[in-house]
């Protein structure tokens, strides 16, 4: 019976009740060691088993084990083993789990850990089709990193499913550091209240303490149940009775550990040796410990003595140490020599488990050892192939530590850095790169180290440093490996074309850009892309576009290019900077779909935040919102919410343009996030510009032209300056800063003279129209001609919002010229577009102008506007394409039951009842 935990038990019970009803949930129980987390979980499971009147719940259990941390997916495999039916999973997920659990190697092709998380979710929700599922994960702070990532992903993605997940973890720092339950509800477990604590003392102590002693024990332990049970056993009868002094006060955990150690030290040497073996072992198997104990000379009597003392429990062929604090106390109290002997004995007992055996051999080794280093390297390769990148980084780094020669250490440190980066640990990856670079004497290895350093800087560091690193590394390796040099030269050139320029330069002849017959399609594409970016930097826009289109055609025709995520991203970035809306949308979308196929979660996150550039320009604002919402949800699911600040910035801009009431709240939250954790890498400046654009747009529609102009002047990135050109022109004109307006229009006119892009020419004509002074002598025909020129160019461009802004300004001009009938056509067209886009401030302005022209603007029936959430829209679009619920679930990383839930909402909102009806609606 648990004392004083009624509220906590009720919350856990409610979680299971909700799961029975198809409302999934997860909860993390955080508390200090000994506070009763495990007891609370045991009580929850016992309560389910003692309630036969309720439908049966399938309970799946696992726990983190400190010494198991280097072994990827160990805890996850224990949890899923009872329900592991890979035949029911989509093939990519089945493959991912098969490789992760070592059931297959799939030809050595690595799996993405993101896919393992998706597969974990699928296994749990498939099992819940038969009966509700409760996942219980104890000691989560000791989970291996791969298991922690997969389980937390599943916990964050659960929706309309009959699944509940409960984790227990220490509240303080400790453990592997892999369990980071951001965005998962938390219940903090404190000590028992004084009344419950005294009751526990009274019922469980062999010799009840006096009232004063009980009060002091309760106060000093803070109501910690384990301390209340263990500390009295170390007190003499006089101390319990209050007639002798109590020992000095210590930190609670230290006191409990000391109590356990005192008990252990009173045991025989064989028992102490057995306990050290059990503390160092992560299998818990009796066979392993019996073999290791026998090899260490531990007699059979030690087992019975340890069990009778309550220090070990042996059930179902498994050995359990009394408490995690016993394990840590025993291990930390042993000398380094004793620990090495224990690990050596365990290594000899693990012939059938090479990974565990190798880690024990490493723990038993001091200094370089070629055999151990090679074995650790093999462990790292196996972990890497299973997608367990953090475990692989650990193995490669430990292998480097046991490698004697500097070149070998450098290569293994770089392997560790690569895997640390793949796991999302940029700080560790950077430190490992620095260590590897200090030892590397091979030009190719040094170039690869620099390329990874540059990639780290691009994403989470300084984009300027990335440009410098790429440029210098390309120059150093050009003579030895031209293709490596070409790849880094392209990365540097694309960065520079976006205004990221460190000042570093390649020698003019360092990179050969002439296409030769022996070049692969990928190499041809890279050369064409480098030519394009160089022409762009030189200001030759038309020639740069031509070269870019050659590169795009090459990429689309070559399978090796279509699967290269870095190349697709650079092609999209180049198209973005050159203003080719169709190309950037196409290549960012191809990058996204390829990343989805590969299960590359971080690239999916990146691509989702690049798509909005083209979606904004193309008037696909609903799709823009969906991309950003998906990015934010994915970032939350994979524990990378800080990397979604660009998506939040786009949503803030959209809120300003739509005049949404949540604009102010969004802006404040975004600015606070930027202040507390500034965006870094390639997204840093775009996020700052998007914030300025949002503030400028809000000021402009609010009548503060000067405030808007102040924001627009601070925008830095050329691509965003061009996208915001319409707003910038109008702000300058309305603020009567004609010099600034003329300068901005002049810049766009210069670009228009050297491009074939219709939207650029339309923007330049619009800018001239806004800044022109009507001539009374010609009745405004010259200005009218400029507006018409802009609209003609917009006829060949796919920028409906910019076109509507031209139509609005033209309609306003015509009305001022007393040409009211002509004005109405432009204003009606503008109003239709603004309403389609939900751009309410400009829709209101267009409607007001229509009324001033003598026409009453009709109110559009809001029932014709689709009010779907981003997830509902995504589900609807996929179902409309003919996909089954199971296929939709695989693409959305949710369960088929959740898909059905969203689909029911879609049918209700749209007033339809079948998938065939859905397929006929214009959802796009």
From TrEMBL:
The keyword ATP-binding applies. InterPro entries: AAA_16, P-loop_NTPase, Sig_transdc_resp-reg_C-effctor, TPR-like_helical_dom_sf, Tscrpt_reg_LuxR_C, WH-like_DNA-bd_sf. One of its GO terms (biological process) is regulation of DNA-templated transcription. It comes from the Bacteria. GO terms for cellular component: cytoplasm. One of its GO terms (molecular function) is ATP binding. It holds the Pfam family GerE. Residues 861-924 form the HTH luxR-type domain. The keyword Nucleotide-binding applies. Keywords: ATP-binding, Nucleotide-binding. Coiled coil: none annotated. This is LuxR family transcriptional regulator.
